[in-house]
Request: fold
Amino acid sequence: MTKNIAVIMTDLVEDIEYTSPKETMEQEGHKVDLISPEGKTVEGKKGGQFESDHAIGDVSASDYDALLIPGGFSPDSLRGDKEDRFGKFAAHFLENDKPVFAICHGPQLLVDTNLLKDRHVTSVKNVKNDLINAGANWDDKALEVCGNLVTSRTPADLDEFNGEIKRQLAQ
Amino acid sequence: MTKNIAVIMTDLVEDIEYTSPKETMEQEGHKVDLISPEGKTVEGKKGGQFESDHAIGDVSASDYDALLIPGGFSPDSLRGDKEDRFGKFAAHFLENDKPVFAICHGPQLLVDTNLLKDRHVTSVKNVKNDLINAGANWDDKALEVCGNLVTSRTPADLDEFNGEIKRQLAQ
Reply:
């Protein structure tokens, strides 16, 4: 069954943390929408140019079945949104037990949901203390699966991350 | 009296958050040392090329009278240090009541000191929740002075930030 996946990201995203999971999702027959602050072309850290499907102001989280948050410096920038629209968007998925896939700096954005207490996560080391201070249990692992909250550390973990994406979306 | 000021930063620092306070400090007769992970040239977000004076492995925090942490994406990268050397370096200043000046994303690095509980700080909005979760009281102000912990939000606050740097270093 085709699922609608929302990806939230902006400039300086870690390119492969978007393109690789997106490829996995599309190979499985799912639909992937890139949602950015203004709906413009997103420029990756490595030079990728990614066309947005929507601006955050034009979509509703309830229209999506799962969420992907790639890393790089993109999650930090999304957290600067004056109306906290990205934190609120992500909260919908955690609140409704929909799959959330976050890699590298991606989990950093989940701090703004205030819904990490007692959840098991991993991430790039840089934001480890922020996740712990948000109440999460943090471990240094290639893949952490906590119900349908799925996190990984870096691009080196993409095989495990993509494998779990397949499993979660097949359910 | 000349004071020795340590600046900790790396690539993608917000250039003016280094160059402007440094100019203020030097005009007042103080000595400013740029300390980076490897002691190499630091490349600013805006294209600045800044020669390091030391690598973090070659200095001791106890040799310095005050600390400056400029923002940009530099503080996040410093937090990725495998031995947490920058968090430990910053902790020395908070533990010994030496002035700490942190602007924009700079305060983000102070989370890794575990010494923010009940301190009053400001920062760029992006890392607000991380500072609150670290136990700090966060306010949206151009300048927050909490004893000798001095924080500001963005380059637009540099006049207030530099003014307080002058006052603190004159003491």
Notes: The interface with chain B takes residues 12, 73, 76-77, 79-80, 82, 105, 111-112, 124-127, 129-130, 133-135 of chain A (CB under 8 Å). The mean pLDDT of chain A is 98. The domain at 4-169 of chain A is CATH 3.40.50.880 (Rossmann fold). The longest helix of chain A spans residues 15-27.
